[in-house]
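Team,

Forwarding the record for the chain on the shared tracking sheet. I've put the sequence and predicted structure together so nobody has to dig through attachments.
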Amino acid sequence: MLKSSFTKDLVEAGCDEVGRGCLAGPVVAAAVILPKKYRHRVLNDSKQLSKEERLEIRKVIVRDALSWAVAEVSSAEIDEINILNASFRAMHLALDQLKVRPDFLLIDGNRFTPYNGLPFECIIKGDGRYLSIAAASILAKTYRDDLMERNAIQFPGYGWETNVGYPTPEHRDGIKKLGITPFHRRSFQLLPSQLELFDEELPEVPIIT
């Protein structure tokens, strides 16, 4: 079972983000404050759970959390400020929305930019160690997956309903055939620099508006 808290008495907010490695769509972050000594036998890193489990546990998190929030930073802003800064900004935006002010932040990963002078701890693979970070990972992932499934209806052919914007062969094949959408991150390498099977230049990629 994951740990309920990092500190003994402080109000902690767990933070996590999803979507850094995607070629399309926003980066999404969540912040969650759970009650002290909270326990849940299934709550875990979102990557360790099935889609059905994540959707069920999302209901529990929303019900039990003292406060929670989700925020996104668009692909256009990612192109402007880079994905790392966009991830930090998404976390800050989620923290801005919390109705309970935390005393301490638990951040998944190894880097973070300070937020409003609050002390924080960066924890590598924290979503598999602390319940509040795991809860944030679930809220961020389910929010983003739902968003990309809706975007897939507007822009079919990229497989977003299953790959949610990650660089799968289906997604990259869609870019080669259809071009890029307003949701694509133009600062990312959307196609390989060299095609694996053919010794030829990459085709020009049209922009869908």
